[in-house]
Amino acid sequence: MNGSHDRNSGLVANRRQFLAAAGAGLALSFAIKGARADGPAFTIMTVGGTWGDAIRKIICEPFAAKHGLTLAFDNRPNAQQLAVLQASRGKPTIDTIELGGPRLGQATALGLIDKIDPALAPNIKRVFPALKDEFWAARSIAPWVMTFDKRVFSKEEVEKRGWSILLDPKVKGRVAIPNFGWMGEMWLNSVNQAAGGSYDRLDPGFELASKVIKENGGVVMISNDQGLKLFTTGEIVAAPFWSGRTIELQRKNLPLDFAFVKGWSPYGFGFSVVSGVARPDLSQQFVDFSLSDEPQLTFARQFAYVPTLQDLKVPDDMPDSKVSAAAFDLAANLDYSQVARFSDSSLERWNKQVVG
């Protein structure tokens, strides 16, 4: 993952799209009372569902107990989150936001997040250099891989054929790809990079996505929870998905496996400080707590993701939270500030060519 993000990277924001998206749906917001909470609620923005529940229990509630805070959560799909920050610029209603991928590049270029202060968030110094920049640090790596039903394909076949396995007639009508506003933009760029394409020309990625949907009966996944459901019910037997979530389904005796194909993505996610917040030091401390040992190991154990602290020893009973050097040789290495420059045109092309 390339950590170079420039606020002046040339991203042209479409404010009309931002404001329209901000009003497109209601956020799920609720408060948890903390002891001795004197000030306003500390508000965290992330996606909801099982992922949001884990963030609340593993990171937010311990942090609130330590600082005597009332918590509030603004849970929205990824595609809506930056719209809210853009619409509330100058008087933000959010104290911290979980970011990763193209949304991180956009938030940085638009000046919606502040730099992390190492004096207030010293754990950022421990994060691998490739997994952080001045505005953000990943607290976990979630491998975005090729998940498949072992009764349909062997692992060797998937590793050899890569993403093109999604076009196999054997999975017609039982295959899925991620929605653009969820993980689709990152996946398109990963596929494209593996095929030798550039950020401004995503022809290989769009060609594959279009064929999956229009020629092989594919469906579009919009969330982690939908993907889990589709695999659990057997409605799909192949899709780009998380390695950790695949392992979660394996533990429920589903006949699934995954492969690190060329162009898989070591997706990192972590919290940032929203620009202009009333209590920036508190937001910095929250970022620091989220990067600390216990939250990282707890997330890794629950979701089989990979911690990001250079000096953190992953226990031997957590082999799924380790990725080999050979696998990393096949990984995409995306510069999300470059991805963000072409987000609007890529979304327009997605709507016309893939789902239109």
Automatic annotation (TrEMBL):
<dbReference type="InterPro" id="IPR006059">
    <property type="entry name" value="SBP"/>
</dbReference>
<protein>
    <submittedName>
        <fullName>Extracellular solute-binding protein</fullName>
    </submittedName>
</protein>
<keyword id="KW-0732">Signal</keyword>
<dbReference type="GO" id="GO:0030975">
    <property type="term" value="F:thiamine binding"/>
</dbReference>
<dbReference type="Pfam" id="PF13416">
    <property type="entry name" value="SBP_bac_8"/>
</dbReference>
<dbReference type="GO" id="GO:0030976">
    <property type="term" value="F:thiamine pyrophosphate binding"/>
</dbReference>
<keyword id="KW-0574">Periplasm</keyword>
<dbReference type="InterPro" id="IPR006311">
    <property type="entry name" value="TAT_signal"/>
</dbReference>
<dbReference type="GO" id="GO:0030288">
    <property type="term" value="C:outer membrane-bounded periplasmic space"/>
</dbReference>
<dbReference type="GO" id="GO:0015888">
    <property type="term" value="P:thiamine transport"/>
</dbReference>
